[in-house]
Design goal:
- This protein is mostly beta strands.
- It contains 4 helices and 22 strands.
- The protein is globular, with a radius of gyration of 21 Å.
- The two termini are 37 Å apart.
- This is Resuscitation-promoting factor core lysozyme-like domain-containing protein.
- Residues 1-18 form the signal peptide.
- Residues 22-94 form the Resuscitation-promoting factor core lysozyme-like domain.
Length: 379
């Protein structure tokens, strides 16, 4: 068995660009006995066994966190992109025996359904009222929306603050310029450039964010960008996972200075390739230090307690499981949404290809979460 994404550097022939549905079924039969929801724990998922970093790199997160959580059609749509980029060799003997390189038919001749719901959620106080707001991209339109926080865990009527944001991803929010106003970071999909959109401190429609500034390049391979003050210096840092599963921290400088807005990165973890939905709720356990949470392939929710120091692999302490069944949740975003001084989580529960409910999980102040409440629909 050969697994998608494993042979990127080995493919030298011109890649095929498409294959029929029947051919993909043959590949899946070889790779996974035709089980499109399979997760064996080997780091590869779904019917055609897609490697998680490859899934992320080719846009799979628009559909689901892990390949096996997406529908068969969605998995094949991403597999088509992999086929076009890497060629049939990405599936080795399974691709060859199925005729993947010689079948150029379109598996879905009609236009497939576009991704639905809100994606790339992030949170910060964009309106300057001391309450955490929610920002996200409407996947069907590319519009950027701000949901003003009420300070009680719920949100007011949304305000459109941008267009064309389907060209951006990996949003993270915090005051990176040191002016007391929340800024928005995002990666441009086509170039991998990292941009900072300075906040104005008020919700004024399309003028809520100022003109963007490029602060980095080569960010296309990073995922799950999360704002968190890892060293407790009052300046938000940025953490993210690379394609090798390494967790990195980019210390914030507290000023807008082009490529020097973030300092030199420090590796703070390894083996994060199978973890997803990284976010920081802030302080979950009332020790004054920002924590990190993430979901594993089995759906367990883990808390990584902050130590308040940027100290390599000891930047976060030993993890604790604080939930299960989180494989049905996605778009995790953390902040103190109810202004009680305790870190909280919001998350969307939806079937693949459908919108769903937005849920609020209040922090209990002792490292865990209290009972959830549904605070929105159509997400």
């Amino acid at each position: 068995m050969t697994l998608a994404g494993l042979t990127l550097s080995l493919v030298s022939a011109a890649p095929a660009t498409a294959a029929s549905l029947g051919t993909w079924d043959k590949v899946a039969q070889c790779e996974s006995s035709g089980n499109w929801q399979i997760n064996t724990g080997n780091g590869y998922y779904g019917g055609v066994q897609i490697y998680l970093p490859t899934w992320n790199a080719y846009g799979g997160r628009e559909y689901a966190t892990y390949p096996h959580q997406a529908t068969k059609q969605q998995q094949i749509l991403i597999a088509e992109k992999i086929l076009a980029g890497q060629g049939a060799g990405a599936w080795g003997s399974c691709g060859a025996s199925a005729g993947l390189g010689s079948d150029h038919a379109d598996p879905y001749p009609t236009t497939p359904p576009a991704p639905v719901g809100m994606v790339h959620l992030t949170a910060a106080d964009f309106t300057g009222d001391g309450r955490k707001d929610l920002v996200g991209v409407e996947s069907a339109t590319g519009k950027l929306w701000l949901y003003p926080g009420k300070g009680d865990g719920t949100f007011g009527t949304r305000v459109q603050i941008g267009t064309g944001w389907n060209a951006m991803s990996k949003l993270a929010a915090a005051d990176y310029t040191g002016d007391g106003k929340a800024d928005l970071l995002a990666v441009e999909n086509s170039t991998g450039n990292l941009f900072l959109y300075p906040g104005t401190g008020s919700a004024v429609g399309m003028n809520t964010l100022g003109a963007r500034n490029r602060i980095g390049s080569g960010w296309g391979g990073m995922r799950d960008l999360t704002a968190v003050d890892v060293n407790k210096d009052g300046k938000p840092d940025l953490v993210g996972v690379d394609t090798n599963g390494a967790l990195w921290a980019y210390p914030g400088t507290g000023s807008l200075a082009g490529s020097s807005t973030l300092g030199g990165r420090v590796q703070i973890g390894s083996g994060w390739g199978s973890m997803a939905e990284l976010t920081s709720p802030g302080d979950l356990d009332s020790d004054g230090k920002d924590d990190l949470v993430a979901v594993d392939p089995a759906g367990a929710l883990w808390k990584y307690p902050g130590t308040g120091a940027l100290n390599g692999s000891n930047t976060f302490g030993g993890r604790n499981q604080i939930g299960s069944g989180w494989n049905s949740m996605h778009q995790l975003v953390g902040a103190d949404f109810n202004n009680d001084g305790k870190g909280d989580l919001d998350a969307v529960q939806a079937q693949a290809g459908s919108t769903g409910g937005l849920y609020f999980y209040p922090g209990n102040g002792s490292g865990g979460l209290a009972d959830r409440a549904r605070i929105g629909t159509g997400w």
